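note to self: dont lose this again. the chain is below, predicted strucutre after it. 228 aa total, dont forget to put it in the shared folder this time
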Amino acid sequence: MAAKPRIPLRERKYARTKLALVNAAIQRLEATPMEEITVNSLCDDVEISEATFFNYFAKKGDLLDYYVQLWTLEITWEIRHSGQTGTAAIDALFATAAQQFQQHPGLMGEVLARLARLREKPVPQPIGRAERHRAFEKVINDENASEIEALDINGLDAILVPALQQAIGKGELPGNTHVPTAMLGLVSLFYGIPLLLRMSNPDSIPISYRQQLSIFWQGMRAASQRAQ
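---
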């Protein structure tokens, strides 16, 4: 089998700078609100000009959207390789998210705030080969490169919908479970619990996720049985 073409240096430099800007924003967000972080300060961190910043992001808020895409790719990869499916995969997603909320409360708080302000769902940016290789540099190799390059960038839907379908197929949820309704409930829990607890008691997010998911699964099963 022919070897895959090497990623051009220009693309690798582009990916390196783009991810460096995201990482600079992550570091600053732990102590400073997004509205107080200037484009110029991020450019100083990465050692590029302010004009160059706009070759990567049209506006400062796009950094958060891009981060969410990268984070979703990472979670998709981890769950896929954990071997977990159905409700276990969804439970794992929530557990991973809880860790992120605990470790980076400033960053994740800004993500929630941005989602609340947006009138429409952000349009996913293409994430090219070089960006994926850079983001996954600790785990990528010749055997898994193609899989990483093909990971879906459609956010939580790319994780939740297949997992719900698996749960139905395995009998963990009734066959008449309405997937869009289940999605609405799960997304509400995913964002709602951290929104309520992030400022007052972030360490309670993991246990709250577990408790509410347990209640949610019981409720979905009961509701589906009543609909039969």
